[in-house]
Amino acid sequence: MSTDTTTDESRTTPPKPRRWLLTQNRQLRAEGIFNWPLPAWGGHFQDGTTYNACPEAGACAKLCYARVGTYRWPVVLAAHERNMWMVKHALADWEVQMAEELRHKRYRGKWIRLHDSGDFFSDEYLEAWLRIMRNAPEDTWFYCYTKSVSRFRRLVEPNPPKNFLWCYSLGGKEDKLLDLETDRHADVFPSVAELEEAGYTDQTESDLLSVLSDSHMVGIPANRIPMLLKRQGSETFSSLQRALDKKLAEKRQRAAEAALDLAS
Ligand code: SF4
Known about the structure:
Layout: H1 26-30, E1 34-36, E2 42-44, E3 50-52, H2 74-89, H3 91-101, E4 111-114, H4 123-135, E5 141-146, H5 149-155, E6 164-169, E7 185-189, H6 192-197, E8 201-202, H7 209-212, E9 217-221, H8 226-232, H9 237-263
Parallel strand pairs: 1-4, 4-5, 5-6, 6-7, 7-9, 8-9
Antiparallel strand pairs: 2-3
The chain binds iron/sulfur cluster.
């Protein structure tokens, strides 16, 4: 659920232009992949107005590697929030800038990951990326993990750009819309042994296996951050989401029964 209350009137000064919009973190640089990150989940800009970069996040939010550690270092978070500000408040300008940047030779033959944190938080934002990808040079490819299942069903699946691959990721409010028999999806397991036992393909060797592996069932071993490992215990992101969905359904049922009692 979005908590966004930002209005045009409440904008702060636009962020300063910088040379490159796309960056590389340590892991992705090792594979020659460029990255477009947003901040994880919800937060607020410097003027106090709010954003929600992952409105379909569910159980994942409590186990999100991008809400702890280096992702919360002020300089890193500020850079991700600057990206969020651009796509939220200056989407048309950002689209022109991104399309222009992608024509640079440094992106020839390269993969671009959309969001190592954050997600497609609105139709407008996803549509901007679809235009950018369709107009990008032929030898630049894009991929992502996403929990925006219903948005992808409507806007991407009927006519995806040729240079775009995606993998649905479990642990979100829309897990129940996925067909795990056929939809490519990723789940986070406590360890490699457990993901293999469940019949999933380990993507540790390369992040691109999320979209290029032969199997449509992609397993990710849990991040080794002790606090997150402890929270996850022996569960997977999908099992935690199922438990959360069940709890919410029971709560709704109790509320409906209470309303009926009152009415009778
Ligand atoms: S959707 Fe991704 S970035 Fe957002 S809270 Fe969940 S795991 Fe973190």
